[in-house]
Amino acid sequence: MPARARKARGEMTPARPSAATRIAYQRKIEALIDEMHRSTLYWLRATYGEREGEIVQDSSPAADLAAQLRRRANQWRKMFADRAPDLARFFISKVDRHATNATKQAAVSLTGMSVSVKDTLLTNTVTQALMRENVSLIQSIQSEYATEVEGLVMRSITTGRDVGYLVEQLEERFGVTRRRAKLIANDQNNKATAQMARARQLSLGVTKARWLHVGGGKNPRHSHVQANGKVFDLTKGLKIDGEYLFPGELINCGCVGAPIIPGVDDEDE
């Protein structure tokens, strides 16, 4: 919608996710994944490779390898648990800065008046909730990877596969893990930006927004397309498919909310 038309409707420009923030966050996750994967490959080539001749003849090497895998998984679980909070803080702080600046600039552009955005109980609550979710998702990457690696190694042992085959299978798994990291980065960027912007908007006294469907996905949710243009309460969300939702809340949802300054006619609600 043109800026003039949006201003006539009393709508602030919606805070859209920052591509730079998403990329920076994704790269940090990928760096951690790459480190884990390189270490795993090195260990497999050194340990599985030198014992693969014994595996089909004796069950004890298999049991020993399984025990070593579990020890290594525990080491990486601790590594991810140690690094995840800092990574999450880095990401959430960048999202909050972006959402806060976008909210302030939109308010100034619409009203011509400077505004001060302060922390509130809601912004702190949203920040902590996003932090917990972020840390959990980062740790889940390691957990899923470790489970898959153990499965690949055990299947290779039972079928008598050599280390070359195992490495090939692990590289395929590595690709899946990296794609999941990309999905998490994109989804969390959408969600965190929408939630932090909503908290900042409420702190300014804005209570309503207009749902805007953002195209671009291959399979858009039909109900989200239909929601385009509808006004909703920033404390409640919009009822879609039987539940109250906020833009960007569901996975792969790129929808945004255009805040409406108090006093605007809500005939579309």
Class from helix and strand fractions: mainly alpha
Radius of gyration, in angstroms, nearest whole number: 24 Å
Largest sheet: 3 strands, antiparallel
SSE order, one letter for each helix or strand: HHHHHEHEEEE
Mean of residue pLDDT? Answer: 87
Total number of helices = 6
User: Based on DSSP secondary structure assignment, what is the total number of beta strands?
Assistant: 5
Number of domains as seen in the coordinates: 1
Query: In order across it, which strands form the biggest sheet?
Result: 2-1-5
What ranges have pLDDT less than 50 throughout 5 or more consecutive residues? 264-269
Assess the beta-strand content as a share of residues: 5-15%
Estimate percent helicity: 55-70%
Envelope shape: elongated
Ends distance: 18 Å
Per-chain topology:
Elements: H1 3-8, H2 19-55, H3 59-111, H4 121-159, H5 163-203, E1 208-212, H6 222-227, E2 231-233, E3 238-240, E4 243-245, E5 256-260
Antiparallel strand pairs: 1-2, 1-5, 3-4
Helix pairs in contact: 2-3, 2-4, 2-5, 3-4, 3-5, 4-5
Task: Write a short abstract of this structure.
With 269 residues, the chain is mainly alpha-helical. It has helices at 3-8, 19-55, 59-111, 121-159, 163-203, 222-227, and strands at 208-212, 231-233, 238-240, 243-245, 256-260.
Keywords:
269 residues, mainly alpha, three-stranded antiparallel β-sheet, two-stranded antiparallel sheet, 6 helices, disordered C terminus
